[in-house]
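User: Can you model how iron/sulfur cluster sits in this protein?
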Amino acid sequence: MKPFVYDRIHTEWKEWMEEQGEPAFRADQVMDWLYRKRVPRFDEWSNLSHGLRERLADSFNLHALETITSQQSADGTVKFLFQLHDGHAIETVIMRHQYGNSVCVTTQVGCRIGCTFCASTLGGLKRNLTAGEIVAQVVEAQRYLDQAGERVRSVVIMGIGEPFENYDATVRFIRIINDPLGLKIGQRHITVSTSGIVPSIHRFADEGLQVGLAISLHAPNQELRKRLMPVSRRYPLEELLEACHGYEEKTGRRLTYEYALIGGKNDQPEHAHELGQLLTGSGSLVNLIPVNYVPERNYTRTPRNQIFRFQRILESYQVKATVRREHGSDIDAACGQLRAKHMNTERQSS
Ligand code: SF4
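Assistant: Here's the modeled complex, given as structure tokens:
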């Protein structure tokens, strides 16, 4: 298997060009073809010599993703199901916001974290994606938006997988899409979401990055969190919050806490009061998310009025809370749904 073009950062292209006896500016030209012109054929990279184009084609693979299917919602959300070179399927979503287009990327094929409200973990972890396989999702999303003359403004690393279980590829991905010669996505427009892998939060704080961090909290106390998120047995809530404060101090960036409301489990007024007490004075934002229906778990959704009551209770503790807008409710937009459907169809036909 040849290495994949999108796995390489700019300096590695420079090194490769040097090895080939080519001037360093050729690396800039490669970046230009990959990220600005987005031409998916080496033989059309017309400002490179024929010989160099052939050497590139002999040494690298330009295609990581084949589109199996895509669905477009009435609200503009687009969901892609991509096939990787080894046959695994992953999901990528474009969401339309007033402030611009955001792309949600996947970092792993499946997930081993085991959050009880999540469909993506049901089949376990198959493998990590490479940085280039994550970059290619954004490039494909940008190609789709090119048709309408639009661009990707922000990226959320919140699709299938736990990004900090694929740490090196995630950080490399951030550096590639942030590169001024790459897709030029500003660091402040990139958000990583983690279930709370404490050592990686510490490590991430030292990367010198200015990206947003979102913590999947989903419970106001350790007992309940352990039941909903087995990861909390390894990294208890108290340790997690300490790591979060450390991250905020080092980076000067406020965190967001994600809280999926699950009917009767964590959505009662007493949970809101406990969460308010836990986060009061932190200055952090809580993002309330109506949980996605997962048939295997039999979880129910919290009614809208109850969500707003939960929000008001948090605000009474001066904790800022927003209710996440739902995207693509008329398509299989919940994380893992489209992939799960595809896997079921594959199973039935084999
Ligand atoms: S919510 Fe994220 S970390 Fe938890 S099981 Fe699902 S994909 Fe994994």
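A couple of observations from the model: Residues 111, 113-115, 118, 120-121, 160-162, 195 surround iron/sulfur cluster (CB under 6 Å). Residues 143 and 297 are 37 Å apart (CA to CA).
User: Helpful, thanks.
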